[in-house]
Amino acid sequence: SLALQITGVILLAVGVWGKLTLGTYISLIAENSTNAPYVLIGTGTTIIVFGLFGCFATCRGSPWMLKLYAMFLSLVFLAELVAGISGFVFRHEIKDTFLRTYTEAIQNYNKNDERSQAVDNVQESLSCCGIQSYTNWSTSPYFFKHGIPTSCCMNSSDCNTQDLRNMTVAATKVNQKGCYDLVTSFMETNMGIIAGVAFGIAFSQV
Questions:
Q1: How many CB atoms lie within 10 A of CB 173?
Q2: pTM of the predicted structure, to 2 decimals
Q3: Is residue 128 within 8 Å of 175, Cβ to Cβ?
Q4: Which residue ranges traverse the bilayer (predicted)?
Q5: 10-24 pLDDT, tens per residue?
């Protein structure tokens, strides 16, 4: 039971880390985002609680309680497999969906809604701009009114709206790298970690 509780803490920690680290990217990339981090959080919490139940059942020597505990362990194993498979499948769907969803996000960008804020978050945190490059913003309705978003700027103190509305000047002010390769690589690596931890703990429990 103690060993099981340790795995519960690990799953809970990985689930919370996955949600905090990847939440923005998942909401931006997927129309139907993966539930892998939530599955790990729920499973980890449940394991910790039922680990205490297992200790209590062992101390009492109650057959029905031990059978219930065994049933619970089977359900935990299945939940971990679901999280692992979900993370693994989503990892390979990223490239297929990101190009389309990110293009839509740029075309509908308004700086205020959740997806627009996610675009800003990605561009700032990864120091990138647009899909393949900053020029992708030239077709966005937002560009014609406000220019390239300030989240693309290399130095926010040396970046103003007038500069960002001129593609020639903006080229010297914004990040040159596109976000496509950076985001897909980042997501594949981190979703691979989540899937690997879920599979590893599941089979170690077997």
A1: 21
A2: 0.64
A3: yes
A4: 9-30, 36-56, 68-90
A5: 777 777 776 777 666
